[in-house]
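Suppose you are handed a protein chain with no further information: no name, no annotation, nothing but its sequence. What can you learn? This example shows the usual starting point.
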Amino acid sequence: MARIPLEDNFNDVINKTQRGLNISDEDLAQRASVSLADLAAVKAGEPLDAVIHSVARPLKLSGAALEALAHKRWYPQQPIFPSGFAAFNTPHEDMTVNSYVVWDGRNKVAAAFDTGATCEPMLDLIRAERLTLRYIFLTHTHDDHVADLARFAAETKAEVWASELEPAPLAGAKTFKENAHFHLGPIAIKTLLTSGHSPGMTTYYLTGLSWPLAVVGDAIFASSMGGSATHFAEQYRNNREKILTLPRDTVLACGHGPVTTLGQEKQHNPFFAR
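A reasonable first move is to predict its three-dimensional structure. Written in structure tokens, the prediction is:
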């Protein structure tokens, strides 16, 4: 797969945080002791290091991580799964969106997470590996993540599952509460409610693969996190309490941007690096 760009640039992180905290430009400039002109320049994408660090403080972001992001000094090292895990990145309008398939190589049963813009690449893998898709798990039901759900469910006959707090994505779909458990042979799957970006935003925590894996949807991105104009604090709290407390070697399979790891995000994500 070609290298997938990071979902957010440094100014996206600043704008997302400012919007989520409901801080005006005037207030932020005053708290950061910068001019409105310099703040506007940074928010437009100009990498002014001194201003970036000043603005980071009142937003409770890591200035060093923001600076590294501004100058494109970091990209997550990609974890290697010898088998049992595949990532897919498909174009949807003006962005790309990710979906994933995991499977047990012995009994050939599989689960998919979201559909992306098209399920065709996942169907190709399922056919090539001769897998039986048992589950389609949805991180949330925003259009870009369920764009091809009806076709995917019809062609695979797999069970569709989503949080009980999400809008019904498809007739016949099943819902779960937090801390539901599923299994694919030796692979264990647990649901964690990481709401904020959407009401039922769910992280799926998997063990039994080469690495512990968290399919996080739009809860966290490499160097960023999912935004919310109304539930930003809820998203941030859930990320810290339910995702950042997972084992450090956990692989994070994000809804947009590249795959990353928890250890790398604790060092390089402006929201969580210290």
